[in-house]
TrEMBL record:
Pfam families: YdjM (PF04307)
Name this protein carries in UniProt: LexA-binding, inner membrane-associated putative hydrolase
Transmembrane domains' residue ranges: 58-76, 83-109, 129-153, 174-198, 204-225
Keyword Transcription: no
GO molecular function, one term: hydrolase activity
Keywords annotated in UniProt: Hydrolase, Membrane, Transmembrane, Transmembrane helix
The organism's place on the tree of life at top rank: Archaea
Gene source species: Methanoculleus thermophilus
Keyword DNA damage attached: no
Length: 234
């Protein structure tokens, strides 16, 4: 999955955690966790190790990293009483699920199955940026993510409330269209489309799942986001 999809999934996870634990800050920590594997692995794998490995799914995409984060989160919760690190770990878990890391067993179970396997990419970052901007799903997730982030921060910047309301309200039908279109692409076996560059049937199914969960998350947490059912901020 691409960056905006990971970010959106992390924000939805953060909303759920914030409701349950009554801590709005967890939205940001979960979103950070949902981006963290790529923030670590892409620069390391495609820049620092470009000549030897050239792969952007390494340590941050493995179960070892996830386990260490959860252990650190448990310790931090006991010592400081804060679930912040656990929220980051939960975000990392969501990232690995969306990347279907079980299909890359060497990376996911590292170091149990041997060393990372090298790959060959030409202009990885240039092609990645092109894939991002040419995928309609990324723009929809970006709009929804911006709305959630601004709504969650409305107490700090009340002047952004109107923009947040507009983005959140617009994101719901957009996510609905994305979900339906992704299900259609998955059912018909379309390979690659404007929805997501280079996508296969499995990717479309994941897009549909994220879209559907996103709709449920946004509509189900309207009060927490400060948006009344009428669409007005409370």
């Amino acid at each position: 999955m691409f960056i905006a999809c990971h970010l959106f999934a992390g924000l939805i996870l953060g909303l759920a955690l914030s409701i349950r634990l009554n801590d709005r800050r967890l939205i940001g920590f979960a979103a950070l966790g949902a981006l963290l594997p790529d923030l670590i692995d892409k620069p390391v794998g495609h820049i620092l190790l470009a000549d030897s490995l050239n792969y952007g799914r390494i340590f941050g995409h493995g179960l070892l990293f996830l386990a260490l984060l959860f252990i650190a989160g448990i310790i931090f919760k006991r010592e400081r009483g804060s679930p912040a690190v656990l929220a980051v770990a939960a975000g990392v878990l969501i990232h690995q699920i969306l990347d279907t890391m079980w299909t890359d067993a060497i990376t996911w179970y590292f170091p149990l199955l041997g060393p990372y396997q090298p790959y060959e990419f030409t202009d990885y970052f240039g092609n990645a940026i092109l894939a991002e901007v040419s995928s309609l799903s990324e723009w929809i997730f970006l709009v929804a993510s911006a709305g959630i982030a601004l709504a969650a921060c409305r107490n700090l910047r009340p002047d952004l409330s109107r923009i947040a309301r507009m983005l959140v309200r617009a994101s719901i039908p957009l996510l609905g269209v994305l979900t339906i279109a992704s299900l259609y692409a998955w059912a018909t076996g379309i390979a690659g489309s404007i929805l997501m560059a280079g996508a296969g049937p499995g990717d479309y199914l994941l897009l549909a799942v994220v879209g559907a969960i996103g709709i449920a998350g946004v509509t189900g947490h309207q009060n927490f986001l400060g948006i009344n059912p009428s669409g007005q901020f409370g």
